[in-house]
Amino acid sequence: MQPDRRTSVVRQWLGMAILAVVVLAGGIMLEITSDRDSEEWATRAWLVIAAVALATHLGLVSLARVRLERAYRDLEGRFAVQSEALQRSLGELRHGDLVESIVPADDLPPAMAEAVEAAARAMAALVQQIQSSSVEVATSAGSVHETSNELVEGASQQAAAVVEITASTEELARTAGQIATSAAGQATFAAQAQETGNAGARALEEAVSSAGELRQGIERIADRADVLGQRSREIYRVLDLITEIAQETHILALNAAIEAAAAGRHGDRFGVVAEEVRRLAERSRESVESVRTLLDGFSGAIRSVVVATEEGAKAADHVLGRSRSAQGAIEQLRGALADTARAAVEISQATDEQRTASNQVVTTLRDISELIQRTAEGFRRVTASAERLSDLALSIQLLTQSFRIDSVHSLKHQTVGWSDGLRDATASFEVVERVLADIIRDCPYIEIAYLVDRAGTMVAFEVNREVVGERRAGRAVAVGQAFADRPWFQAVSRGLRTAVTPLYVSLLTDDRCFTIAAAVHDRTGSTIGVLGVDVNVRSWTSI
Amino acid sequence: MGEANRTGGDGEPFLVVRSGGQRCAIPVAAARLVTRKVTPTRLPGSAPRLLGLAQVGGEPVAVVDLHALLDPIGAPGAARDLTVVVRRADGSVSLGLAVDEAFGVAAIGDRRAPDPGDPPWLVGRAAIDGRELVILDAERLIADPGGS
């Protein structure tokens, strides 16, 4: 209980007690009065007491009551003021303006003002904390999204690689089967070729034997030709001897003729004999020349035979050598064919094993492929969850942006600041454009900043080319265009200082964006327009 | 070689020989011997036509290339197959003439005088079977083989 109230109650009880004392005192005095004088005295005394009591009552009770009523009225007036201030403060809180909600608290009692301010600051801190947390969540979700995307891509590549490897392994298995079949056929062919090689080796052995016999025959012919050559040379020696004898005879006949001529007539008959001898010698020489000519032909034929036999011997040797080489080659070929047949059998067996192993690998690869696909599906779910988480963080961000707090991260607070900057600039179009350009320069995540008048008609705008690029605004944004039907304009027109729209797709960038709008007031507080900024979510979240 | 065997005809008998492409007639009276090729010993500083000194029948004989005598400016002849030994009538000096071939003894009747410029031992020219031959004088040839 408050002291004033206790005093008032004491005073009320004190007044009633005085009245009771006065009444009791008058009754007692009337009871104890026995005569008339005493009765008058008692009456006077009672009147005095009553007067004193009345005065006391007036002084102690009625005056205090008047004062109390006056104090009540004062209190009621302050209560109304404080109620209004509290209402305004709560109204600002209801609209999420945690900055303006503190200002009306100055009219509240200090404790209440402190409580309101503390509540607003706590909420602001909470909003800021939520903002930071949502940013971290968005960042983490983005990292998870990016990582899971990479994992999905990697898993997809792995799956594709496994599919490719599976196809290659299946092809390998099929090829191994074909190789096994071919190797078996090759083994058969090699066996047949080996048989053919054996027949060829036998035939070639016979050919070698025949070539050896031919070589021996040629050697015999060469021996005979040598004998004939020796006989020819002996004949030549005989012919030389005959020629020499003929020449000697010729010379002898010449000398005889000389002697006969020197003898004159006595030598005529001797001269005739000498002449006959000379002629005989001449014929002998002519015959020898004829024989020599024939012998030359015979010797030439023998030399041709010798040359032919030598060439035949060389050819036979060549044939024999080639035949022996061919025999060796066939032997090697037979060995190689036997090796080939064995190798073909081994290849066939190995490729059969390879086919079996390849089939097992294919089965394993299919299991791996299925596992990878399941992993990829899990990663896709993680990606989707990360996307949802990112969207949720973005929604929380937007939710926190619906609060205005005294922070550079509060877009609402910044927009209100920019709208306050336009308070004195609306009369100058150049100043408006400069303010809009400053907004674009300071906030690279804003696609476009614009000012519409009170009727919702576009007055000026500034496009951020670093975000939008060279894409033209076109019909989406133009000076003179009506924006009165936009939700943000209608919200501000209903008396809200600021408004934040839900996410939508920008016509300028095809990215997701949202609009923050703030009313622009003149110095009298009247709304003269609305400042709007379209925030590009991709650029904003990246910052 | 059958064209030089006319010893029974008119005229003086000559031994017909060939040296190179030239046929020559040597008087049979001056011819002493026909022999196979001899191997003379060349004398230092002798003329190219003088093949050297050989021994024939036990006598030293100077051997002269007849072809070199007939054609002094021509190339030296090849080795000759025969050597005809001629001598003076008194038999005092003999000279060997290296020839290629000896055909036999033939009698030469008609002959004409040597051409101007012929060496002094070439004493006439004649023809046998349409083939021209030169007639040699053995005495002059022995006396001056160089023909100067």
**From the coordinates shown, what is the CATH architecture of the largest domain in chain A?**
Orthogonal Bundle
The largest sheet of chain B, given as strand count, sense and whether it forms a barrel, is:
5 strands, mixed
The most extensive interface between chains reads:
A-B, 17 and 19 residues
Q: What structural class should be given to the helix and strand makeup of chain A? A: alpha+beta
**How do the helices and strands follow one another from N- to C-terminus of chain B?**
EEEEEHEEEEEH
Q: Helicity of chain A, in percent?
A: over 70%
The CATH topology of the largest domain in chain A comes to: Helix Hairpins
Quote the CATH topology of chain B. Answer: OB fold (Dihydrolipoamide Acetyltransferase, E2P)
Helix/sheet category of chain B = mainly beta
Strand-residue proportion of chain B = over 45%
What is the number of strand segments of chain B?
A: 10
CATH 2nd-level architecture of chain B: Beta Barrel
Describe this protein's structure.
The complex is a heterodimer of chains A (543) and B (148). In chain A, strands 1, 2, 3, 4, 5 and 6 form a 6-stranded antiparallel β-sheet that branches. In chain A, helix 1 (3-32) runs antiparallel to helix 2 and helix 3 (110-262) packs antiparallel against helix 4 (268-401). Chain A has helices at residues 3-32, 36-94, 110-262, 268-401, 411-421, 429-442, 465-468, 487-493, 537-542; strands spanning 446-453, 458-463, 498-500, 504-505, 512-521, 527-536. Chain A has 3 domains: 3-94; 166-377, Helix Hairpins (Orthogonal Bundle), CATH 1.10.287; 410-543, Beta-Lactamase. Helices cover 77% and strands 7% of the residues of chain A. In chain A, a hairpin with a 6-residue loop joins strand 4 and strand 5. Chain B has one domain (12-143): CheA-289, Domain 4 (OB fold (Dihydrolipoamide Acetyltransferase, E2P)). Helix content of chain B is 7%, strand content 45%. Chain B has helices spanning 66-70, 138-143; strands at residues 12-19, 22-27, 31-36, 50-56, 59-65, 82-87, 94-99, 101-108, 122-128, 131-136. In chain B, the strands form 2 sheets. A 5-stranded mixed β-sheet of chain B has the order 8-1-2-10-9. A 5-stranded mixed β-sheet of chain B has the order 3-6-7-5-4. Classes of the chains: A alpha+beta (543), B mainly beta (148). At the A-B interface, helix 3 and helix 4 of A face strand 3 and strand 8 of B.
